[in-house]
Design a protein that fits this description.
Helices cover 36% and strands 24% of the residues. It is built from nine helices and ten strands. It has a six-stranded mixed sheet with strand order 6-7-8-3-9-10, sandwiched between helices. It has a four-stranded antiparallel sheet with strand order 2-1-4-5, with helices on one face. Helix 3 (96-106) packs across helix 4 (112-125). The longest helix is centred in the C-terminal third of the chain and has 16 residues, at 171-186. It holds the Pfam family ABC_tran. This is ABC-type polar-amino-acid transporter.
Length: 251
């Protein structure tokens, strides 16, 4: 059984059709990276998976449960899905430990000792054990995003969704977040990742999906999509984003 099964997904905002018939499956333990130009519908696709956006048409199943069924208990499904956004969405008045603990206590009803133990484990996983007592304002952007990842992991998800998790970071901080994601992939976490980090997608993804104008133009193993793209639109996009930056000579 696929972890995610999407069939005939459409999403419109008024007269604007953002998703125009998406069919996609993600298998257990698979890392799927979604790439494409801005406005192609990548983030909307991701947000439809856990109904942060309500699809206009089509069906979505997560671990066999149809989340697009009006009778679906979406809160129960979301408990098995971790989501990491572009912005970190940490509570500024809470410490890192409290940020990672609060949903465990309130949603999963874990006792304090168990929640604290799981929090400590996941802060170690993301390299933030020494920052447990710090507040978000005392952390770099990369550290805040790693704390957000730890918060999701502490809920013991079967699936992680990443919506351009490095786009709000200074370039020198991107690597530390990608390293955590790389480690999760190595552990067998099922991941659907919207990203503009092409080197990460090439290295870590089992499959790369190229979207444009609300449709999936092409998908396949990274070596094929990056090395031998079949579609002209894919070739154009990759030529533009992978073209080496020209360095201007000094005056």
């Amino acid at each position: 059984m696929s972890t995610i099964e999407i069939e005939g997904l459409h999403k419109s905002f008024g007269a604007l059709e953002v998703l125009r018939g998406i069919d996609l499956a993600v298998e257990p333990g698979e890392v799927v990276c979604v790439i494409g130009p801005s406005g192609s519908g990548k983030s909307t696709l991701l947000r439809c998976v856990n109904l942060l956006e309500q699809p206009t048409a089509g069906t979505i199943r997560v671990a066999g449960v149809e989340v697009t069924d009006p009778d679906c208990d979406i809160d129960a499904v979301r408990r098995g899905i971790g989501m990491v956004f572009q912005q970190f969405n940490l509570f500024g008045h809470l410490t890192v430990r409290e940020n990672v603990t609060i949903a465990q206590r309130r949603v999963l009803k874990r006792g304090r000792a168990e929640a604290d133990r799981i929090t400590a484990e996941n802060l170690r996983r993301v390299g933030l054990a020494e920052k447990a007592a710090a507040y978000p304002a005392q952390l770099s952007g990369g550290q805040q995003q790693r704390a957000a990842i730890a918060r999701s992991l502490a809920m013991s998800p079967r699936l992680m969704l990443f919506d351009e998790p490095t786009s709000a970071l200074d370039p020198e901080l991107v690597g530390e977040v990608l390293a955590v994601m790389r480690a999760l992939a190595g552990e067998g976490m099922t991941m659907l990742v919207v990203t503009h980090e092409m080197a990460f997608a090439r290295e870590v993804a089992n499959r790369v999906v190229f979207m444009d104008a609300g449709v999936i133009v092409e998908q396949g193993p990274p070596a094929e999509v990056f090395g031998r793209p079949r579609e002209e639109r894919t070739r154009e996009f990759l030529h533009r984003v992978l073209e080496p930056t020209r360095v201007r000579p000094a005056d």
